[in-house]
Amino acid sequence: MSLPHRKLGPFSVSSVILGCMNLSHAYGQKPKREDAIRLLNRALDLGVDMLDTAALYGMGTNEELVAEAVGHRADEYVLASKCVLFAEDGKRQLDGRPETIARVLEGSLKRLNRDCIDLLYLHRLDMSVPIEDSVGALADAKAAGKIRHIGLSEVGAETIRRAHDVSPVAVVQSEYSPTVRNPEVAVLDTCAELGIGFAAFSPLARGLLADAIRSDDYVKGDLRTIMPRFCEPLLTHNLKAVDRFNALARSHGLTPARLSIAWVLAQAKHVVALPGTRSLDHLEEDVAAAHDTIEPSVVEAVNEIFDGDAIRGPRYPARSQEQIDTELLPGEKLENA
User: Fold this and answer.
1) Mind telling me the catalytic residues?
2) What pLDDT, on the 0 to 100 scale, is given for residue 336?
3) Residue 28: pLDDT band by 50, 70, 90 thresholds?
4) Distance between CA 254 and CA 90 in Å, rounded?
5) What gap in Å lies between CA 4 and CA 18, rounded to an integer?
6) Which domains does the chain have, with CATH numbers?
7) Residue 104 and which of 67, 79, 161, 255 are 20 to 30 A apart at CA?
8) Contact 124/323 with Cβ under 8 angstroms?
9) Has this prediction a pTM greater than 0.90?
């Protein structure tokens, strides 16, 4: 099956790609392995041709899952993984030193059963290590034929420029949706100027814009339990805007998820949407949004719904925010700030 394609830095990929995190990590009970394998293969069958994993996801098991599920179809998709964040002895680690990046990459190659990864991101910015050193390690890996291209995640425009001066950056990914607009401060324009692709992760706002959240009664292990905007007393306020968004979607014959992804894709031609899901039905819905086109008036209507303080609360808890370099919005307040 064919999907609309976009230029994502050096790649030509489907405008909706797939994040694999949900299959091993972050949202409570993970699916059965056979169900996860079925979903990954269905994504390729639908025309999705870029998969996004990471050394951290599932403490490394997500990379193993991708290899088992679709390793035999490696010529059908671009494979992206990430370093700097990883697991060691069952604990989450943040380490952007060149020697650690090299070691974590070797582990990823082994788990993925690959000699080379198409795109390797710095998952987060290790503030204790100059970005030039971390990117230099990826440049060395590229020269050695272990990765093809370099990516960055959740970084600001100045960091992108410093990294790009060391070695060309192919893709930047950050959270971006109608409720999270931080990349609009400087990152989207910087990527466009430098010829860097932009992958918008969590385009459905972690389920908020997929009509999947009505209370903060999350299962154990769900990362939204520590994200202020997804918990009371802020959630009730935020759902008022979500209800308006849902009504707008219905009025245009779309589901909320499809409207959210269509809104992301309408922002710029160098942007692709990077949702994740554990549900085959949701996968089909997300991929269908690649064919949706919305009028500028609908884009503006979405913008109006989420203007001002329509969504209250930081998107990350304070400890996680320490690893985020993306610019803040005017007036944006962080937890405990």
Assistant:
1) 57
2) 65
3) confident
4) 42
5) 14
6) 5-214+255-293 (3.20.20.100)
7) 161
8) yes
9) yes
